[in-house]
Amino acid sequence: MNTALGAAGLAAFLALGEAVPRLGIVKERYFPPTSRIARALGDQITDGAFWTDLGDTLTGWALGLMIAVGAGIVVGVVLSVVPYLREATASTIEFLRPIPSVALIPLAVLLYGTELRSVLLLVVYASFWQVLIQVMYGVRDVDPVAEETARSYGLGTWARIRHVLWPTALPYVMTGVRLAAAVALILTVTAELVIGAPGLGARIAVAQTSQAVPEMYALIVVTGLLGLIVNVGARTVERYALAWHQSVRGEVAV
Amino acid sequence: MRRLLAGIATGALMVAATACGSSGGGGASGKNASSGGTTTVKLGVIPIVDVAPVYLGQEKGFYAKHGLKLSMTTAQGGAAIVPGVVSGQFQFGFSNMTSLMIAQSNGVPVKAIANGVASTGVAGADFGAITVKKGSAIRTAKDLEGRKVAVNTLKNINETAVRESVRKAGGDPSKVTFVELAFDQMPAALDSGQIDAAMVVEPALATVRSQGATEIASSLVDVAKDLTVAMYFTSNQYAQQHPAVVKDFQEATAESLAYADAHPDEVRQIVTTYTKIPAAVLAKVTLPKWPAEPNKASIETLEKLGEQDGLFKTAPDLGKLLP
Question: b/e for B190-219, b at 16 or more Cβ within 10 A?
């Protein structure tokens, strides 16, 4: 039922995209109808360079996300477990967190030029906070009774992290990962678009400066589809990782 | 499940570690890879028609003849190229003259070494022009007083050029409102009436023309006949440390420019390899001129106009900047 509704919604959207330029509400030259975009998309798919660029984008996204998630989890747990450290870093984190990643573009160019590392710098910076903050919230959610019980049973720090802290924090971590996955994709494409590092973003920029309007929209559609896949993938991972958790079990039962 | 997550975490850390490891190596080898007498240099360019000669020269073997292999890096505008060259990410870059003069006057150590691109010098048939919508009441550059004119970058070469056109037409450039808009967005903005005029260059100019727009002034020609619009440059440090490579690059580029100037059909062909300009548009694009040597007098004029319009904090030292 949901799938059918979703498909109908999409079909209506595509039809609207076809009709609006055809009726002359917006100019075809700047907003080509769906069929023109679809044809341009077909041309892209048969172009070998497109797949290389797609690969570059996915590499930037995956590497950046993995680094951000790994670092976010480790730093988040360490900061939460050591109260002094948390107090000492709280103000720094609150200062750094709102800095938009794109503001670091000049720094990235200065350090790494237009290479993959420039993209990674922006992607990791943006997605790291998503994970870190969620981990810290998750740790704060640990039931003090459970924590005290674990202590009185003589569990060491590592055992308490594994058996008490981690299961409590995991749903939060998964939310963080899901958010980070989307943010990482956005930043990968943005970095490529603005800096010119190889990938779909750079391809969009070239199409844009070349006045190749349908190609540009076709590539934008590709990034949209990627975002959709990333989101569905992240939800699947979340569901799988939290299969034991009441939030997911409850969802399944209904 | 726990094992899975532990795996993911370990994997992420390993990737982080290898990413850092390989980055160090990549940086070292990427700087100046020398193999069998061929030096690979990175050249930061913008994916536009203007840089066609270096692509053509690479294909024709002009650079190989001088022991150079160009690794073209396309960046989106000078914002990435100038810092990239100064920090040594690229050995050479492409930038317009006003940007280079602004950089130099701000103490950024750049040195122009080879000519880049020049205007055709023919009013009404240049690769850049002030355009107005079909049927607009604006007839001359003087009419731009009190109007909204789009330039790709404020306080840069195109603003200087538009101001000069207005001045030459007997108007007061201080009465013109400038707005910043990317070239590729100008056709749509002009069409919808968000701007009254646009200082647009190819290939967007071909698009604007196909909409029936009128060209009211060839601003680059108004600045100076045969204006040197952009040049290839390097950092002072690289120029001092690798004078031989710079000399090779200069000679190979001069050959490439001359070849491109004489073979417009090959230029149009090579442009399709690094841009997505549709064939129909490309056929209508006005190609710029590629003289082998920069026109110093025109650069001096550009500098004076820039100074008059307050673009520079201190006057740029052209003696140090130019080859």
Answer: bbeeebbbbbbbbbbbbbbbeeebbbbbbb
Q: Is the ipTM of this complex over 0.90?
A: no
**Element spanning B298, H or E:** helix B296-308
Select from A141, A241, A114, A174 the least CA-distant residue to B4. A241
Interface mutation vs chain B, best among A102, A120, A211, A245, most B CBs within 10 Å: A211
Tell me the Ramachandran region of residue A113: left when phi exceeds 0, alpha when psi lies from -120 to 50, beta otherwise: left
d(CA B220, CA B72): 27
Closest CA to B24 of A62, A114, A199, A117: A117
Interatomic CA distance for residues B119 and B128, integer angstroms: 8
Cβ neighbours of A210 in B, within 8 Å: 47, 184, 203, 275-278, 281
Closest CA to A186 of A14, A98, A93, A60: A60
pLDDT-derived band at A133 (thresholds 50, 70, 90) equals very high
What CA–CA distance (Å, rounded) separates A160 from A162? Answer: 5
Are β-strands B148-151 and B197-201 bridged in parallel, bridged antiparallel, or unpaired?
Answer: parallel
Burial A214-239 (b: 16+ CB within 10 A, else e): bbbbbbbbbbeebeeebeeebeebbe
pLDDT of residue B177: 92
Per-residue tokens: B8: 């993911």
DSSP string, B38-104: EEEEEEEE-SSGGGHHHHHHHHHTHHHHTTEEEEEEE-SSHHHHHHHHHTTS-SEEEEEHHHHHHHH
Q: What is the pLDDT of residues B182-220, one digit of tens each?
A: 888 899 899 888 999 999 999 899 989 988 899 999 999
Handedness of CA B276, B281, B283, B286 (dihedral sign): negative
Tokens of B218: 């060839």
Whether B15 and A244 lie within 8 Å, measured CB to CB: no
The partner residue sitting opposite A67, judged by closest CB among B15, B75, B87, is B15
